[in-house]
Request: fold
Amino acid sequence: MDEEFSPEYGPRWSDKRVEQMLGALVCAVVGLLLAMIVTVLVRGWPSFAHNGLAWFGPGGSVDEQLNTIFLSGESGAHYVYTFHAWPLIWSTLLIAGGSVFIALFSALFVAVFVVEFAPEWMSNILQPVIRFLASIPSVIYGLIGVLVLVPFIGNHLVTEHQKASVAGVISLSGYSLLAAITVLTVMIAPLMVSIFSDGLRSVKPGWLEGSLALGVNRWRTTWKIGVRTARPAIVAGTVLAVARAIGEAVMLAMISGSVGFAPNPADGAIFIYEPSRPLAPTIVKNIDQLSSPPSNATLFAIATVLLFSAAFLSLTGWAARRAMRKYGAA
Amino acid sequence: MESSLATPPAAPPPGGPQIPSNATKGAVEGSATWRLSDRIGLAICWALGLLFCAIAVAIAVYLFIQGIKYLKPSMLVTPAAAGFSEGETGGFSDAFVGTLIVGVMGMAIALPAGIAIAVWLVEYGRPAALARVTESTIEAIAGIPSIVLALFGTVIFSNTALAFLSRSNEGVVFGRSFFAASAMLSLVALPLIVASVREGLHSIPRHVREASYAVGKTKAATTRRILLPASRPQVATGAMLGLGRIIGDTAIIVVLLGATQNFAPVGGNFPFNYLRGAGTTLTNFVYEASPTGNLNQPQKAYAAAFVLLLMVLALNGAVDIIHRRARKVGTWSS
Reply:
C-alpha cells in the first residue's frame, strides 16, 4: 500500500518513463517481426541460390528430391539442394483458391442473411453457430475429415473403375483435393462471415434508407448499397481467410494425401479425387529433417514463400482498402 | 415456399408509429413483390444459413457421441504408454496437463504484452510513424502462418545463449520445450488481445480522460486506475479469444514441443525441469492419434478431441457471459 502515500506522478511511474517503457516494448515487437523475416530469408537462401527460378518450376518428384536433400545432409559429403516445388505450389493454389472461392460466395450470402434478412430467431441461432465453427481447433476439423469425410469419398464417391484407371500413377484412397477443399471451406467461411457482417452492420443506415425511399426493394438495396459500401471489410475478411488457407498446415497434412503430386485438371472428373500436398503441410511432415543442413535450408525456403505471400496479401489488402476509403465504412 | 419462409414472423403492429431504427430491419416488405431472381437469391441465403447450422450441429453431435462413447475419466489421469492395443496405451493425462501449461504460460506473456501495446497505441502513439508501423506489424503477425512462427522458434531457441530454456547435449541445444512453445504461441494470441483491448480503450470517451487529468492524475495513473478497469470486459474477451487460439494451435506444438507423448523432464528444480523438457498437448495428441499420425488410435483421438472441444466451448461461453454482463452494466455513451 505504498502507493497511497507516494505520489503517483513521482519519478518511478512518471509519464515519460512509462511512455519509454511501452515504446521499447513496441519497438521490440516490431524488431522481432523484422528479425523473423530476415532470419527465415537468410536460412532459406541457399536453397533459392542453388535452384534459381527453377525452385518454383516443375521437374522430377518432389518427395524424392526432399529425400535426396535429407540424405546428402546426413552423409555430409556434399550437399544437394535440387528442389522443384511446383507440385506443392500448385496444390496450395488449388486448395486455397478453391476453398476461398467457395467460402467467399457462401460467406457473403450468409453475412447478408444474418445482418438483413434473417428473422430474429434465425440470426440468434446463426451467430453462435458461426462463432462455434470459427473457434473449433483445426486439428479437430482434420480428425473429422480423416475419419469421416476421407473414408466416405474413398468408399462411395470414387468408383473402382476410376481407381483402376490411374492405378499405376497414384492411388485414389479418399485423401483428395475434394476433402481438403471441403474441410478448409468450412474452416474459413465462418471467419469471413463474422468480418463481413461487422462491415455490413457499420453501413450508415441513412444510405440504405435513401435507396429504400426511392422504391428499391430490400434485396437490391442490400446488394447495391450495403455490400458495396462494405467492400473494405470484404477485402479485409478475404485477405485474412486467404492467409489462413495458405498457412493451414496440420489439418491439410492430415487429409490432403501427403503426396508430392500435382493434380492434373486434364484428367477430367477424377481430378478432384487426386491427392496432393500443399507447401505448409510439407514443412510439418518433414520437420524431423531440420537437423540436416540442406533440408533445413529447403524447409526455410518454403517458409519464406509462405511468409512473403502472407506479407504480399496484407499489402494488397491494405492498398485495396485505401483505394476504397471514400466509401466511409471501416 | 420461399416467400412464406422469408416473411418476418415478428411483423410490427399495423398502423403503429414506425421507430426509425427499425426502418431497415423488420420493416416489412415481404419478398412476394420481388423479382424472381431476387427471390432465388433469398432462397440461397436461407439454404446456406441452414447449411451452416446443419454442419455445426453435425460436428457437435458427432463429436459428443464419439466422445461420450470413448472417453473414460481414467484417461485424464493416466499418462500415455507404449502398447499394442488401445486398451494398453493408457490415457492422455500428460497432453491434458500440457494444454493447461501452454495456455497459462502463453497467456502470461501475451496478455501483459498485448495490453501494453494497445495502451501505447491508443494513449501514446507517438511518433505517428512508429504507431503506423506497429499497427501494420500486429496485422502482419495475425497473418503469418503459425508454421512459420514455429520454424522461427527453432532458430531462436536453438541459440546457445538460450540453452537454459531447453535440453542441451554436448553444446547442441535441442530448442524444444514448454518455454519455446509458449513464447511462440503468445505471438499467435497477441493480435487478438491487442485488437480487443484497443477497441475497449477507444470506446471510452475523451471527457473521462480529461476529467482525470483535471484532478492532476498523470497519463500513466489514468490508464491504470480508470481506463484499464473500465475496459475490463474487452480485456477479458481478448484474453479468452487468445487462449482459444493458443489451445487450438497444433503446428507450433508439433514443431516446438518435441515429438513425445509424455513429459520429458530435464535436470533442474521442480517446475523448471518439466518446463525445460519436451511434452505434448491435446492438439498434438489428436494429431498423432489420428490415422495419419504415429500412434493411430482413433478412439483416443476422439476422446481427446472431445475434451479439447469442451475446453473451447467453455471459453466461448465465458466470452458470451462477459458480453452479456458488460451490456447489462451499460457503456459510457448511455
